[in-house]
UniProtKB/TrEMBL annotation, chain A:
Pfam family, one: TctA
Record has Iron as a keyword: no
Keywords annotated in UniProt: Membrane, Transmembrane, Transmembrane helix
Annotated ranges, domain DUF112: 20-437
Protein name: Tripartite tricarboxylate transporter permease
The UniProt record lists the keyword Ligase: no
UniProtKB/TrEMBL annotation, chain B:
Residue span(s) of domain DUF1468: 28-171
Keywords, in A-Z order: Membrane, Transmembrane, Transmembrane helix
Presence of the UniProt keyword Membrane in the record: yes
Protein name according to UniProt: Tripartite tricarboxylate transporter TctB family protein
Pfam short name (any one): TctB
């Protein structure tokens, strides 16, 4: 049990008093920011990035783990008490959770969600401990062509699996790739798209891009369409569950991760699909079918557990392959790059203290999350009453802090605003944000791997497909691309429902 | 909110204008086209005098991205003209039934730039407070007694936490020099 020993070493790192403090701080901050309406986990993580600038990488990522899980849990609180999910993964939590809260069972809904997160996160993280070293071992021999194939897969997956329009997804990806091109070419030092400017020669920092697109873009977009007199949150007491509720939900908590974890690990849009699948499964298996839609507790427990486990699954592909499958993972990858650390199969060999400290702190974070969030739920619920002008002013404020902290330069703030305006335009015309962020983060890397692969093969294109791994990945890509055609063939046999 | 749209132009012009408004997404195509042209021009005018290792130089990927942008601009234009529409993003606090409130957006942009200009001469605590108060004001908060106080406290606490506790340097400005 090599992984077990490494994990114990990780606990040794994570359980030092100072690191425990960072984990607790991360969980608290993550939940607080995640609860705030309008802030999804990706924006929460992007906004909290600067908090970790002054820390060493191990402490920073321990804090990050707490922020990630905290923000995910916070989002479901918003869904249940306000019925206005900020991100797609929390939509399902609102479907049964909000009717429960309306019927005076908000405490039970929150408890089912909190314990669901705990169970899903625990099972998911255990699977991560078992799987990640194996995947890393398998992947340790992969070379430039394989990396390039993985990144192409990431590009294709974010543009064609998510969102309603492939064209708009591709447009967003290309915008991201263009931003990623700005600066000095990594291999030759050639200036690209710098227009002679020294500022641009350094490239545009990915943190500024992420914060600009997620935070400033969102704040400006909401400002243009601010809802006057929004929904009132439902007040709630301390979460608890009765014996009957536990009897109904424990199986759902255990089933959720089975659906959530695999979906998190593949580039299929993170928690969105598995939460919905879990919801459908629970509904089918439920004995109290008449309650569904009016507040069935299994409909909160299962999907929340699935969501949490999918977050752990996301970490498998992020840590072992450097492949971000969700927006949060993309921002975390940006954070790794800030420290000059490249996630991938070698990470487990090169930075064992960091990786296992991070994984161990996921367990610690989950326990803290449960211990803090059950008693603190009424406090979090109060955060939902924050006046909207303060909320969005605060988002702009912290976005500015983050961008300025990157390099201490005013010009970065102007860049941030310009990228925020791009984010605004993208929201207006339905261009998804995630492909652009993935393009900025993975673009330069993909180019480097492509050129390296072609150097090795001396320019022959076969150098890109000369490993079984790469061929497999390209086969998956072809399947992804062919999927709409297949669907079209199937639907043509049936009368079309919508135009 | 108080501006009313006066439409005194003759009917055909109004028709054209409403066609343009309905197809404003074509503006995105124009932007993508311009961006593609920019990337391609930059790539093609690049003089690569550094000895190149390998067959793929610094030009290749920009050329691919540039061509991709041009192609996607054309495809998007076709999609829009055939009636496709990008769906504006919804959200917890987003009300899409009202027309966009441009005044607030412009005000926010102005305040942000103003605060950015202040950060170096006046220091972060002042600039941050101006940013928060200004943004809250632009977004409709009019509590003159409470807003500036919250802004000042938030900005000061953030400065102390980042600069002193977290080791992320922020400029204190003359005010912090006095304190």
């Amino acid at each position: 049990m090599d992984a077990f020993n490494s994990l114990m070493g990780g606990f040794g790192t994570a359980l030092t008093p100072l690191n425990l403090l960072w984990a607790a701080l991360g969980v608290l901050l993550g939940t607080a920011i995640g609860v705030l309406p309008g802030i999804g986990p990706a924006m929460a993580v992007a906004l909290l990035l600067p908090v970790t600038y002054g820390l060493d990488p191990v402490a920073a990522f321990i804090m990050f783990a707490g922020i990630y899980y905290g923000a995910m849990f916070g989002g479901s609180t918003t869904s249940i008490l306000l019925n206005t999910p900020g991100e797609s993964a929390a939509v399902v939590a609102a479907m049964e959770g909000n009717p429960m809260a309306k019927a005076g069972r908000g405490s039970q809904a929150l408890a089912a969600a909190a314990i669901g997160h705990f169970a899903g996160g625990m099972i998911g993280t255990i699977l991560l401990v078992i799987l990640a070293p194996t995947v890393a071992d398998l992947a340790v021999d992969i070379g430039a062509p394989d990396y390039f194939a993985i990144m192409v897969l990431a590009f294709i997956a974010v543009t064609s699996v998510l969102g309603s329009s492939r064209i708009r997804g591709l447009a967003s990806l290309l915008i991201g790739l263009t931003i990623g091109l700005v600066g000095l070419d990594q291999m030759t030092g050639q200036q690209r798209l710098t227009f002679g400017s020294l500022q641009l020669a350094d490239g545009i920092d990915v943190v500024i891009v992420a914060v600009g697109l997620f935070a400033i873009g969102e704040a400006l977009w909401v400002a243009a369409h601010l809802r006057r007199g929004g929904a009132e949150p439902i007040p709630v007491g301390r979460p608890w569950l009765g014996r009957d509720d536990v009897k109904r939900t424990w199986k759902s908590w255990l089933r959720g991760p089975l659906i959530g974890f695999p979906f998190g690990a593949i580039p299929a849009g993170g928690a969105e699909i598995p939460t919905f699948l879990s919801y459908v499964t629970e509904k089918r298996l439920s004995k109290n079918k008449d309650e569904w839609g009016k507040g069935a507790i299994e409909g909160v427990a299962g999907p929340e557990s699935a969501a949490s486990a999918s977050a752990a699954g996301t970490l498998v592909s992020m840590l072992t392959l450097g492949l971000p499958t969700t927006a949060v993972a993309a921002v975390m990858l940006a954070a790794f790059q800030q420290y000059g650390i490249q996630p991938g199969p070698l990470l487990f060999d090169r930075e064992p203290e960091l990786v296992w400290g991070l994984i161990a702190s996921l367990f610690v974070g989950m326990v803290l999350l449960l211990a803090l969030n059950l008693p603190l739920a009424p406090v979090w619920a109060k955060l939902l009453r924050i006046p909207r002008p303060y909320l969005y002013a605060g988002i702009m404020f912290f976005a500015a802090v983050g961008a300025y902290a990157v390099g201490g330069e005013v010009i970065d703030l102007v860049t941030l605003l310009v990228i925020g305006l791009i984010g605004f335009g993208m929201r207006r015309y339905g261009l998804p944000i995630l492909p652009a962020v993935i393009g900025v983060i993975l673009g330069p890397n993909a180019e480097q791997q492509l050129r390296r692969a072609l150097q090795i093969s001396d320019g022959s294109v076969t150098g890109l497909v000369n490993t079984p791994f790469a061929v497999t990945v390209y086969a998956v890509i072809v399947l992804l691309l062919a999927w709409p055609l297949l669907k079209l063939l199937v639907s043509r046999r049936r009368p079309r429902a919508d135009a | 909110m108080t501006t009313t749209r006066t439409d005194s132009s003759p009917a055909p012009a109004a028709g054209r204008r409403s066609w343009l408004r309905e197809h404003s997404e074509l503006g995105v195509c124009v932007m993508l086209l311009a961006l593609g042209a920019l990337v391609l021009t930059d790539a093609l005018t690049m003089d690569v005098d550094i000895t190149q290792r390998g067959p793929v130089g610094p030009k290749t990927v920009p050329i691919v991205v540039g061509i991709g942008l041009l192609v996607i601009a054309a495809l998007l234009a076709v999609d829009v003209l055939r009636g496709g529409r990008g769906e504006a993003e919804g959200g917890e606090d987003v009300d899409l039934s009202e027309p966009a409130d441009w005044r607030t957006v412009l005000l926010l942009v102005g305040i942000f730039l103003g605060a950015a200009a202040l950060i170096e001469p006046a220091g972060f605590p002042v600039a941050g407070a101006v940013l928060f108060w200004g943004a809250a004001f632009a977004l409709g908060s009019r509590r003159v007694d409470r807003d500036p106080l919250i802004a000042a406290v938030l900005s000061l606490i953030t400065y102390v936490v980042f600069d002193k506790l977290l080791g992320v340097p922020l400029p204190g400005g003359p005010l912090m020099g006095v304190l």
